[in-house]
């Protein structure tokens, strides 16, 4: 017991002495051994890596789980090393409500049938979101956490040891300086100077050894960047897959609703009044179609009989023409299409057998096919 108490007292004394010495260095009242420029650069690079990794990690967690209460719950389960309970996504919950509403309001009615179709699509979207969250957590969040909770803690520990070794080294330098000054005044024996020199050599050796260990760990940050780069590619891949699945599900739903809209609302147009998604850029859809097409981009998607359609011979139906406001600029892919400018008003109508993603548009004496997703149909 006495030994432990003495050790605690000794450690407390050393800690206090180092704290005083560190404070004196800050105020320029004590000399400080400086690290070389390369070492300082490694330290700054490591600190930046840690700070930005924390920020990216936290914001990615917000992206995957916007609910702060749910994030806190998941954090507590992880700290307790317990499995996080399965939680339905917002899309799956919406799908459940829609299905229950259809059952109560009448699954055979037009509204009930549509609720069922939309609920099935929302359920698929929810499942896709769940898969994305799981994949992104494993491939991206987990490696970032492992770095912060593993490698970075090791680096921080060795840096603290290096700081202590440097403080000890400077303390020995100060004692040797005082011993030599006292020797010059003939108030100390030579063995006191020898003792101070021996302590300085030991402190210098320990400092150099710890500096090398810390330097090697800091240089390992480059490997960390390589690993995080690979994880970032995996994250982008999983996010691309997720959005592609969402697009396919919503496009299927749009076609299902479009095919039944004419039956439910006779005399109206096939298509939607709002686009499934806006263009990814101001360029022609033919440019963006390679990644995520937002609208049909050529006659190749239209039925063969429509491709051979002679626009000069097309006449609007006796009833059913409609005004539409253009949502985005659209560059015609060929002479059968009509170029569009955002916010302009055009007249549109559908013809029997046309692809439901397209309408015939007229502006003055100009006429051509236009994509439905670029239009807001007006009542």
From TrEMBL:
<dbReference type="GO" id="GO:0016020">
    <property type="term" value="C:membrane"/>
</dbReference>
<dbReference type="Pfam" id="PF03114">
    <property type="entry name" value="BAR"/>
</dbReference>
<feature type="coiled-coil region">
    <location>
        <begin position="179"/>
        <end position="213"/>
    </location>
</feature>
<dbReference type="GO" id="GO:0061024">
    <property type="term" value="P:membrane organization"/>
</dbReference>
<dbReference type="InterPro" id="IPR027267">
    <property type="entry name" value="AH/BAR_dom_sf"/>
</dbReference>
<feature type="domain" description="SH3">
    <location>
        <begin position="319"/>
        <end position="379"/>
    </location>
</feature>
<dbReference type="InterPro" id="IPR036028">
    <property type="entry name" value="SH3-like_dom_sf"/>
</dbReference>
<dbReference type="GO" id="GO:0005737">
    <property type="term" value="C:cytoplasm"/>
</dbReference>
<dbReference type="InterPro" id="IPR050384">
    <property type="entry name" value="Endophilin_SH3RF"/>
</dbReference>
<comment type="subunit">
    <text>Homodimer, and heterodimer with SH3GLB1.</text>
</comment>
<protein>
    <recommendedName>
        <fullName>Endophilin-B2</fullName>
    </recommendedName>
</protein>
<keyword id="KW-0963">Cytoplasm</keyword>
<comment type="similarity">
    <text>Belongs to the endophilin family.</text>
</comment>
<keyword id="KW-0728">SH3 domain</keyword>
<dbReference type="InterPro" id="IPR004148">
    <property type="entry name" value="BAR_dom"/>
</dbReference>
<dbReference type="InterPro" id="IPR001452">
    <property type="entry name" value="SH3_domain"/>
</dbReference>
<feature type="domain" description="BAR">
    <location>
        <begin position="24"/>
        <end position="266"/>
    </location>
</feature>
<dbReference type="Pfam" id="PF14604">
    <property type="entry name" value="SH3_9"/>
</dbReference>
<keyword id="KW-0175">Coiled coil</keyword>
<dbReference type="InterPro" id="IPR035640">
    <property type="entry name" value="Endophilin_B2_SH3"/>
</dbReference>
